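User: Hand in any protein.

Assistant:
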Amino acid sequence: MKTTNQKTERVEVMALFGYEMTPCEPLSFRRQSDAKEIEVQELLSSSIKFVGSDVIHLFDVKALGKKLRLAFNAKSLAWSLIA
């Protein structure tokens, strides 16, 4: 999942599951190094990626006025911020 130009950081995410046509929608996230909660302003797109036996749900979101990507590993239940 990591490429040369991307940094992955574990984050805590508040998400809404089972909402209409989108089965999961991230609402806000918090970096481990910062106590401040960052609100997701808009869900731009979502997709699924298979990595070995893991299923990774990718969410392109707008937060802090820029485009960010959140990833959810369905096996480990871990969220990551990919920058």
The longest strand covers residues 8-19. The mean pLDDT is 90. DSSP finds no helices and seven strands in the chain. Residues 50 and 72 are 12 Å apart (CA to CA).
